Amino acid sequence: MTNAIKIAWGSIAVGITVLAIKTLAWWMTGSVALLSDALESIVNVATAIAALIALRVAAVPADASHPFGHHKAEYFSAVLEGVMIVVAALLIMREAYGAFMSPRMLDAPYAGIAINLLAGVLNGAWCLVLLRAGRRLSSPALAADGRHLLTDVVSSVGVTAGVALAVLTGWHWLDPALAAAVAVNILWSGWVVVRGSIGGLMDESVSDAELEQMRTLISENAEGAVEAHDLRARNAGAATFIEFHLVVPGEMSVEDAHDICDRIEAAIKAEISQCAVTIHVEPEHKAKHTGIVVL
């Protein structure tokens, strides 16, 4: 079992625990704002399950039907998360509208607020784990789950403070108003998650900083070649696919050209984990004089 899959199992356990705590807070108070917080936790559990499934599929080795691997399965998980976030936001909007039309006094508000804060602390701690793991393991599924959980933490803090203010001031309309604000915040986070995943599914290029790192590695390890050009790179989940053309002197033997390619590939793989490098070797007259200069 990979580290990413272990963390995904942890997300499910934390999500179920937080859902139970938030549901208790809503049951004690009758607050529609706290209900919206609990509804978002249902989405957290569902998306954690989706992320686990995607990570298990992405970990399957390349085969005859999928020679480039199954890494993009993680992006489908992130898109599903975005869709489920939108569904949760619409459900919350419906509850908020009903409560706004018929406002009511809250029951046991302080005990409910304290319980909801406990859920927020637990969510916040796990959010940090997910965001760090997503960066360390280059996992879109874990990163998307972490960003989604971060919005849940922020909205939980706002909801808790707002419910406390509604109790202190007697402004009962604040409760459904806060629920509506949570729904808008959730919608925005859903758009951010989907937008990032679409870029991965559309084979969006890696960042300029990553491309520059690749150019430097090629330039420093291509001694004997003339130049390199047409560098392209994309991410697919945790994997990075890199390809470029390497121009060598016309009289160079195939074996010597292959040695240069091996040296470049080893240098890149030492710096960029889980990458696949494809190098197209060309004779000297194919040089464009606009690519990567060999040091």
Automatic annotation (TrEMBL):
Membrane topology according to the record: Multi-pass membrane protein
Pfam family, one: ZT_dimer
SUPFAM superfamilies, A to Z: Cation efflux protein cytoplasmic domain-like, Cation efflux protein transmembrane domain-like
Compartment(s): Cell membrane
Keyword Transmembrane among UniProt keywords: yes
Domain Cation efflux protein transmembrane residues, every copy: 11-202
UniProt keyword annotations, A-Z: Cell membrane, Membrane, Transmembrane, Transmembrane helix, Transport
GO molecular-function term, one example from the UniProt record: ferrous iron transmembrane transporter activity
UniProt record, GO biological process: intracellular zinc ion homeostasis
Protein known as: Protein p34
Organism: Thalassococcus profundi
